[in-house]
Design goal:
GO terms for molecular function: histidinol-phosphatase activity. Keywords: Hydrolase, Magnesium, Metal-binding. InterPro entries: His_9_proposed (IPR011809), Inositol_monoP_superfamily (IPR051090), Inositol_monophosphatase-like (IPR000760). This is Histidinol-phosphatase. Its cofactor is Mg(2+). With 271 residues, this protein is α+β, with helices and mostly antiparallel strands. The chain has 8 helices and 15 strands. It has helices at 3-21, 42-58, 88-92, 165-176, 191-197, 211-214, 217-223, 253-261; strands at residues 31-33, 39-41, 63-66, 70-72, 78-86, 99-106, 109-117, 122-127, 133-134, 137-138, 152-154, 185-186, 203-206, 227-229, 244-247. The strands form 3 sheets. The protein has an 8-stranded mixed beta sheet with strand order 4-3-5-6-7-8-9-10, with helices on both faces. β1 and β2 (39-41) form a beta hairpin.
Length: 271
């Protein structure tokens, strides 16, 4: 079974999720608030169920970790990680900037990642060793010569834990150079990482992400020439605390880390 087969399957999974989601968008559906206070809709569940049905048939030995229906066979060498609607709040608000995230990890590392926006029918696909594609055509991140003026995005400033806020604000200050016009773009969830891969944003910063929030993003961003890491510049793993940085231009890493941590030696360490 080649990686190409896996990529073709991942595209089929994204197609199935989109078919399940589209009828619910800007329509009437049931909404619940989960124990962690996050919203979930019939669309999230229908999309994940559609993906899992195909996986159980086509890859019965592979593990699955999904946001809505839990985990099976997580000790398998190959594990699919699913987030049927990343950006449920955007979905509920009728904003077509949510996405379906599908990742395949092998030995714990994400080797395939898909970000699919089923309303605009936009799809980023990343695979280890291959250039990232957007709707089938290769995309690249853009160069970023300086931190000041960089395009920065985060889903919401309200999602940062209190202790993270000063670090986030310090990065915003470095990017904006005192001008609110240079400030962040808000909203977007996974969509921002696709835009970074396509060269429209330079930095995405978030905290509190789970593995199903970022596993699919890594092959997409890295296959386009960008990098993803935690707030100390370390690679993201399943054990990461959910502090996520994506940079379109890896040359800006030290600048970003310096801005986030300033003279705070507890966090920052030189490589």
């Amino acid at each position: 079974m080649t990686t190409r087969d896996d990529l073709a399957l991942a595209h089929r999974l994204a197609d199935a999720a989109g078919e399940a989601i589209r009828p619910f968008f800007r329509a009437r559906y049931d909404l619940e608030i989960k124990a962690d206070k996050s919203p979930v809709t019939e669309a999230d569940r229908a999309a994940e169920a559609a993906i899992r049905a195909i996986l159980e048939q086509e890859r019965p030995g592979d593990g699955i970790i999904g946001e809505e229906y839990g985990s099976v066979r997580t000790d398998a060498e190959r594990v699919w990680i699913l987030d049927p609607i990343d950006g449920t709040r955007s979905f509920i608000a009728g904003r077509p900037i949510f996405g379906t995230l599908i990742a395949l990890t092998q030995g714990g590392w994400p080797t395939i990642g898909i970000i699919d926006q089923p309303i605009a029918r936009e799809r980023w696909a990343g695979m280890s060793g291959q250039p990232t594609t957007f709707n089938g055509k290769p995309v690249r991140t853009r160069a970023c010569k300086a931190l000041e003026g960089a395009g920065i995005a985060t889903t919401s400033p309200h999602l940062f834990a209190d202790g993270d806020v000063p670090h986030y604000m310090a990065l915003v200050a470095a990017v904006s150079g005192g001008s609110p016009r240079q400030g962040p773009v808000y909203g977007g969830d996974c969509y921002n990482y696709g835009l970074l891969a396509s060269g429209f944003l330079d930095i995405v910063i978030e905290s509190g992400l789970q593995s199903y929030d970022f596993a699919a993003l890594v092959p997409v961003v890295e296959g386009a020439g960008g990098m993803m890491c935690d707030w100390n510049g370390e690679p993201l793993t399943a054990d990461s605390e959910g502090h996520v940085l994506a940079l379109g231009d890896p040359a800006r890493l030290e600048d970003v880390l310096e801005a986030i941590h300033g003279a705070d030696p507890a966090h920052h360490h030189d490589h």
